[in-house]
Design a protein that fits this description.
about 375 residues; Rossmann fold; seven-stranded parallel sheet; 11 strands; binds nicotinamide-adenine-dinucleotide; binds magnesium ion
Length: about 375
Amino acid sequence: MRVSVFGATGSIGESTFDLLSRRNDIRTVALTGGRNVARLAEQAKALHAELAVTAYDDCYPALKAALAGSGIEVAAGTEALVAAAERPCDWMMSAIVGAAGLAPGFRALAQGATLALANKESLVTAGPLLMREAAQHGARILPVDSEHSAVFQALVGEDIAQVERVIITASGGPFRDWSRERLEKATLAQAMKHPNWDMGQRITIDSASLFNKALELIETREYFGFDPAQIEAVVHPQSIIHALVGFRDGALMAHLGPPDMRHAIGYALNWPRRDDLPVARLDLARIGSLSFEAPDPDRFPALRLAREVMELRGHAGTAFNAAKEVALDAFIAGQIGFLDMAALVERTIDSLLSDSGLTDPVTALETIAAMDQMARERARALAMEMV
Ligand code: NAD
Ligand code: MG
């Protein structure tokens, strides 16, 4: 099997690298990364990749030097990155963070490759187009978010028309029991202390604000096509159950596992078979008990915003994701407070509602790109007012 990994040096990328390193039936086509060229070069050598690409032009000399004499091709820049997705491969891991992950995924689908999709922003930003692209080319998208992999697995052998509801779980993050007053002053360092999962910086902060869960509600709708009213989120601090699917006879099928993304990645890699994976086995007696609570919309408005976005449809997901990325950047830069992120996203959506074609149906990548751009500009302008 020929594989490519986009975002190979990140958290999902490293877990994918770990699984690929254990296999001897894999041919690695392309690996891509950002500024950590030393690690990208190491991975490319270890997997005997054909090509290594850094997203940044100025990183080209360093990557070239690190791979000198290896026979591995080197390229840099956004265009080279997208072109790498056109290299024939059978399986592509999409693990770039943010809307930047969208274009390579489209190219992979256009060549009929299986797209292992960790980049949830792709579905939130351009869900209908991405699913259409896959259908047109007979390509398959396999979910790599733990919740969505769990739903996918619970649906094996089932008729999706008999599904009554889907429940995805949220750990609640480090601020699960914080008051609104405390949340207002929450710092970047505090937001980075996720209780269960070890992930990249952006998704870790999104987990603390529940924006990650908000993206995942939309991701569930876009990927499986469920009605928004069928999709629920529940806080489950132990992160052992990843999702549950409820059927019309009242049965709930739950997917359990330790918080290790190698399960969802490995499932997508081995699909439709199951094979050995190096993940810890759960000791239920040791875990003792699992608990659940309803998310508090007052302290975590992101989930309410996701519901609004699902109702609005059209380009609302695009605007939501773009505004969220701007808000996250502003929080990381110390320009706005933790709760300001949700306020900024809400104001951006409200402001776009009146004049931007926000709810026009999605028909082409161009309109997605235009809305992404407009929402970022609007969010940046509104952020200035909040500073
Ligand atoms: P990360 O920040 O650890 O890694 C991101 C990767 O993308 C790195 O290789 C980086 O070099 C590259 N990258 C960043 N910006 C880029 C750009 N503009 N252009 C090209 N490459 C760029 O992120 P992560 O935690 O591995 O998350 C990756 C994706 O997977 C995200 O969409 C995230 O929501 C999703 N996801 C992650 C986890 C997890 O456990 N980490 C779980 C579920 C879903
Ligand atoms: Mg998830």
